[in-house]
Every structure is written in C-alpha cells, then in structure tokens.
Amino acid sequence: MNTNFDILKEKFKNVYFITGLAYAGKSTMVKRLAEKHNGIACQENWHDDWDGELTTEEFPALCYTRDLKDWHDFIRRTPEEYARWIKDVSLECERIELMMLPQIAAQGRPVFVDTNIAPETLHKISDSDHVLIMLAPIDVSVKRFFERPDREKQFLYGLMLEEPDPQAALDNFRNCLEKINSQENYDYYENCGFPVIYRDENRTVKQTLALVEKSFKLDKK
Question: What is the pTM (predicted TM-score) of this model?
C-alpha cells in the first residue's frame, strides 16, 4: 500500500491516538473522551467493522482465525509462533486503520482511537500532543487475562481445559502472553518518543481522564 503520510497528517488533525500495552485503560479512555468531547470512539478491535474483503494473500494473519478449522491449534502454538502472529496482525490492522480513518475523520468530529498503528508510523501521521502511550505493569495482562468476562477469553480458557494436559496448555498460553508482554515490548513503547501514562491502581478513571486530556491539550476545550 502506497501511503502519503503528509496527506494523512493533514486529515488526522482532529484524530487522537492511544496505544500501548493491555490493561492500561486504552479503550476506557477512548470511550470517556468521545462521550465528553462529542467525539467518535474507535475502541478495541474497531477495525472489525471494515467492509473491505479480507484475503489470505493480502491479510494472512487476520485470516488465520477466520479460516481456522480446529481452535485447539490456536492455543497449541509456541510462544514464538504466537508472538510472530500478534506482530503480523498488528501490521495488517495498521493498514486497515489507515484506510478507514480518513473517512471517519471527515465527519468533522474529534476521533479517539485505540490503535494498532505502530509508533514509527504515528510519528509520520500525527503530533506528540495527539498520541499517547498507556502502559500497565508487564505482569498484569498475564495475571488478568482470564479475569475479563468477555466470551473470547473464556472460550480460550475452555479449550485449554479440554486438552489432554490442561495445566500444560495453560502454562504454554501463559508463556505466550509473557512473550508479547515482555520487558522488551514495554521498553519499546516507553521510549518511542510519545507521552506516557502509567496504570495506577490508586488513581480513579476520572483522574486518569484528566491526565489524558492534559496530554491531548483538551483540558481547556
């Protein structure tokens, strides 16, 4: 995909991007910002609404789960295979987001995005006061993965319990989560050149929202 980043940067003047690690509060902030500032919320997995065609040739990682015959194979992958797939999914989602966002931004309202777009690309299409990194301790996502009540995570948990050795399956998937939530990934986001907000259990959602608004220079609007 040939991308003119200068044109996109002009179109994205009213788009605010949040990225980082899981359980840092990204989608919660996107939702609250949109509610408060009469904006559009693009929350986690919002690119699923893309109406374009997904082909295995162009989007092999995204098509992996769509075309999967036995979901037990999903949880049987090694941590290295899982991490490589997650990286490829993010790259493919970035391409889709860059195709979707211009039309969303053209609606004239502020757009708040829980994004898969890499920091390197964000530096080309946005400014430091329109991008925010949110980080949680690297062990949080591993500990809390199955605590979320959503069907996807409970479905995966059920698959592991069906394995011949459920504990080994759980341990393997825990290793997969640790691989993608490594100190290396944490450092990558922390040092990518954008403002960072860290998860703080002693801070309320309202207080976090105020910090995000200040970073985005929305606190005076």
Answer: 0.92
